Amino acid sequence: MNTHAHPETAETAPADVESPADEAARKAKRKRAFAAMAAVVAVLGGGVWAYETFVASRHVETDNAYVGANVAQVTPLVGGPVAEVLVDDTVAVKKGDVLVRLDDTDARIALAKAEADLARTERKVRGTMATVTGLGAQIASREAAQLQAEANYASAKSSLEKARIDLQRRQGLVASGSVSGDEVTSARNAFETAQANLRASEAARAAARADRAAMVGDRDATGALVENATVETNPEVLAARAVRDQARVDLARTVIRAPVDGIVSRRQVQPGQRVQAGQALMSVVPIKAAYVDANFKEIQLAKVRPGQNVTLVSDLYGDDVEFHGKVVGFSGGTGAAFAVVPAQNATGNWIKVVQRLPVRIALDPKELEQHPLRVGLSMDADIDVSN
């Protein structure tokens, strides 16, 4: 009864059962799919391994890199009113080109005064030297006068001695009557005259000695001012010449010139403005000497060495223009260390942050001349660390 009630079920059940051949085909297809997937994974893994081994391990790169340059600040060395400004921002200048002229009236007056002081000092020194020479001649004359005074003194002394002997002799003969009183009186007068002459010659000798000594003192005092020196090497002349030279320098400094080749930037001066020494007037950016500071992560720098080759691309020119350079060196500290407000790591809520260290890269001057860069532009830097 039940057998005949569902004849269709009994006949269709075998049709839903997979045959052994179909099952084998399905398993084979599945194996082929797994094999294909394994092959793809193997190829991808091999590619990644090859890239890491032969490419990535030999290069470190960053897009945190920027163009820099040693920007020259233009500042006056002397103060004064601005007479003329000859350049403006974006103008290309060469080293030595005139940028600004200051009013030089005061500087010219100071130079004229310094030149007059120098001429007066030179004449004074020449006069002093002539005085020393004249005093030398006068001293020679005084020496002759002193010698004459010495001779007169010796003669007067001899005459006094002779008069004394003659007086004594005559006084001894008075008692015997051989000599009259008049002769004794005459001898005494001669003796007194000889005494007066000796005193006069002694005074004259002392005066001659004092006169010569005073003359020698004057010569020595005056000669000390010019001793062992010519007019050119005299200290007073050298000092006056230094003042004159400083005045010349100050006059020359009223013309302010470009310190380097480059592009004028940040002009901050106008004609008629009074400027002070050291005041910033403008900047000159030496774009032909530009470099790149690339901020690499500290974990990238293990193999980086000075002298390694670097390939760079700028956002300005795109991938079509490549720059080439070399690693120059590393900064003395990370960017965080030199920040205006350095990070305080000695806190309870400390989180380690990977630091970046600036790496200085020198660029090829010929490439810079063909494709000029500007300070602050973004760059991508790729260092070849294989050598």
UniProtKB/TrEMBL annotation:
This is HlyD family efflux transporter periplasmic adaptor subunit. The chain crosses the membrane at residues 33-51. Pfam families: BSH_RND, HH_MFP_RND. It is found in: Cell envelope. The keyword Thylakoid does not apply. InterPro entries: MdtA-like_BSH, MdtA-like_HH, MFP. Residues 1-24 are annotated as: Disordered. Residues 70-285 form the Multidrug resistance protein MdtA-like barrel-sandwich hybrid domain. Residues 147-210 form the Multidrug resistance protein MdtA-like alpha-helical hairpin domain. Its main location: other. Keywords: Membrane, Transmembrane, Transmembrane helix.
